[in-house]
Amino acid sequence: MDLIYSNDLFVCNIENTPTFEAVTRGRVRSSIVDITLASGSILEYISDWKVNLEACPSSQHNAIEFHINYSHAHTQIHAISSPAEQTNNRPTSTFLYKSNKACWPLFKEALHLRMTMSNVLDIDISSLSPEGLEEVIDRVSDIINSACRYSMRIAGRGAKYKPPWWTEELEALKQEVINTHRMTHLHKHRNVPLDDLLIKLATKKTEYSNKLRYESTKHFKEFCNLQTKENVWSLTNRLLKANGLRRAPVTLNLGNGYTNNAIETADAILNHFYPHDLPDTEPRHHQLRNLFNTLPHTQDDPPFSGAEILEYLKQMNSNRAPGVDNLTSDICSQFASDYTKLLTDIFNRCLSLRYFPKQWKVAYVKIIPKPGKMGCRELSSFRPIGLLPVFGKVLETLFIKRVTHWAGVNNKINNKQFGFTKHKNSTQAINTALKIIKQAKENKKLGIAVSLDIRAAFDNAWWPSLLQRLRHIGCPVNIFGLIDNYVRDREVLLDYAGVRASKIMSKG
C-alpha cells in the first residue's frame, strides 16, 4: 500500500475473478495475487480490464487482459506544424474505434452523461464568432471521442496469432481443459463434490502441456534440419518476396537526385501531389484572380435542415476511413440522431458566417503504392488519398447539393454532362455516343472520338475559375461565401517514415 500511495498509483483490477488457482490436497485454492497498477496520467486510457480463463489453461496463473487506448492522444490533431517533424511511432491509421462491434446503448449513455456535464447545450450557437464556433466543434469532438473510448474497443489489435505448428488436436485438448475448468468453477459455486473433476482437470492439463511441448519441439527440430548450406536463407528470402517492403522508403528519387532523409521525403511527397499555384501567365487569369473576393449579387439560400443532415449521414459508408478526428460515419450518425438540433445549428452558423471550420479542412494523407510498384523509390510509384472528417464531408455535401440545384434551375448544366448529374449515368453516355456514331454512318460521314484525360485534375482545380463559375450559375451568396472560405487555407497532413509534414494548399 505504501508503494501505491507514495507513487500516486491506481488499481485497475475489477470484478472478483481469481488471478491464481491451484489444487492442493484435493481442494481448489484461489486468490487475486496479480494486481495491475497504473499512474493517474494514463488511467483514463486503460479499459476492458479482465481475467481471461482461456488464454493459458495449462498455467496456475490466469491471464490478465486490458486495452491501453493511449494511441488516441497521438492520433487527434488540433494544431499542425510545418515543415516535417519527427513523430516516432505515431499511428498512421485514422481508424481508432471498433465501431462495427459497438454497444450503441452504452455509447449513448456515456455520450449523454458527458454532454450533460458540459455546457455545450446551453450555448447560443447562432451568436458565435468563427473562433467560438471552432471551440464548440472542438469540444463536441472531444466529448464524442471520450464516449467512444469508454464504450468501444480500440482498433488495430490484430488477429490472434497461432504458431505454424498448431494442430486441430491441440485446439481440441485446449478446449477440453477450458471446459473442465469452467465445470470446476460451476461445481464449486454449487457446493458439488469436486474430486473427480479435479482429477480430470489435472489429467487434461498434463496431457495438453505434454502435447504442446512435443509439437513445438518437433517443429523446431524439423526447421533446424532443413537449414542446410544451400537453403539457409530460403525462408528469409521467401518471406521478403511474399511480404514485400513493409516500411516506407526513407529516400525517394526526385528525377534529378534523391532525398537525403525522411523529412525531405515527406515534404517532397506533399509538394509533388499538392503543388503550389503557379503565377498568372494570361491576362484572363489575372482578371479572374482579381475577382476572387467579389461576391455575387444573389439572395441567401434557406438554412440547412436536420432531415438533410441525417439523410446524408445515413448514406455514408461507415467502413470508409475517417479524418483526423477518428470519428466514422456510424459514430457521427449516432451522435446526430440524438443531437440533431445542435448539429443543425452548427452547420447553419457556418452558413450564416460563410465560414468553413479549419479543423474540418485538414486532410490526412495516406500514400498508397500503385499496383506492381511496391518497393519502388519513384514519386510516380505512389498515389495519395486524402481523408477528411465526416462532419466536414457532410457540410460539403450540403452545399454541393444546393449548388447542383441552382445550376439545374438556371439551366447552367450542359445536357451532355453525364457524370455527377442526377438522373444520368454512364449507360446514357454510351447510348448517346452510339447514337452519334450511327447517325454519322447513315450520313456516310466519319465519326471521330476524342478521349481526354487530365492528369490530377482535382488536385489542380483552380479556385478563381471555380468561383467565377459559381457566379455564372447564380449561386446564392451565403453558399458562395461558404465555398469561398472552404477553399482557403486547406491543409494536408502526412505521416511518413516516422516523420510528420503538413502544407497549406493553394489549389486543388
Overview of this protein structure:
- It is a single chain.
- This protein has about 500 residues and is an alpha+beta fold.
- The strands form four sheets. A five-stranded mixed beta sheet has the order 7-11-10-8-9, with helices on one face. It has a two-stranded antiparallel sheet with strand order 1-4. A two-stranded antiparallel ribbon has the order 2-3.
- The protein has helices at about 1-5, 70-75, 105-115, 130-150, 170-190, 195-225, 235-245, 260-275, 285-290, 305-315, 330-340, 340-355, 390-410, 425-440, 465-470, 475-485, and strands at about 10, 20-25, 25-30, 35-40, 45-50, 65-70, 85, 360-370, 380-385, 490-495, 500-505.
The rounded Rg comes to: 31 Å
The helix fraction, in percent, is: 40-55%
Structural class: alpha+beta
* Spatial gap, N to C terminus: 60 Å
Number of helices: 16
What is the global morphology? elongated
Flag low-confidence runs. Answer: 71-83
Q: Could you give the order of the helices and strands?
A: HEEEEEEHEHHHHHHHHHHEEHHHHEE
β-strand percent reads 5-15%
Q: Biggest sheet, in brief?
A: 5 strands, mixed
Strand order of the largest sheet: 7-11-10-8-9
The average pLDDT value, as a whole number, equals 83
Would you count the extended β strands for me?
11
Question: How are the SSEs placed, and which strands pair?
Answer:
Layout: H1 2-6, E1 9-11, E2 20-24, E3 27-31, E4 37-39, E5 46-52, E6 63-68, H2 71-75, E7 85-86, H3 104-117, H4 130-151, H5 168-189, H6 195-226, H7 234-243, H8 262-273, H9 283-290, H10 306-315, H11 329-338, H12 340-353, E8 362-369, E9 382-387, H13 390-409, H14 426-442, H15 463-472, H16 477-486, E10 491-496, E11 499-504
Parallel strand pairs: 8-10
Antiparallel strand pairs: 1-4, 2-3, 5-6, 7-11, 8-9, 10-11
Helix pairs in contact: 3-4, 5-6, 10-11, 10-13, 11-12, 12-16
